[in-house]
Amino acid sequence: MAMSDATVIEIAFMSMTVAAKLAAPVLLTALGVGFVISLFQSVTQIQEATLSFVPKAVAIGGVLLLTGNWMLREMMTFTVQLYEKIPTLLS
């Protein structure tokens, strides 16, 4: 028996929500550090393209260290929820 359209849309929505939640800390950190570095470059008139790479890499590494455990729990919770839905999806 096939899944209904509503079920497929629900699973897709849940997947995109989890993906957005997991990507947000890394993307917002990169955005914030990039903005601060760009502001610094425009104030000091230093136009070095590679200047923003190291601070961004360090900041993103720090964010991954701080939020990695939470990200793993979120992914595990989502996966467990999907596996628990399998019997209802097949019937």
UniProtKB/TrEMBL annotation:
Alphabetized InterPro entries for the sequence: Bac_export_3 (IPR002191), FliQ (IPR006305)
Lipid bilayer topology: Multi-pass membrane protein
Keywords: Bacterial flagellum, Cell membrane, Cell projection, Cilium, Flagellum, Membrane, Transmembrane, Transmembrane helix
Entry keyword Transmembrane: yes
Principal subcellular localisation of the protein: membrane
Transmembrane segments: 22-41, 53-72
Signal peptide per UniProt: none
Top-level lineage group: Bacteria
Keyword Calcium: no
Localization: Cell membrane; Bacterial flagellum basal body
NCBIfam families referenced in this protein's UniProt entry, alphabetically: fliQ
Purpose of the protein: Role in flagellar biosynthesis.
Family, as annotated: Belongs to the FliQ/MopD/SpaQ family.
Protein name stated in the entry: Flagellar biosynthetic protein FliQ
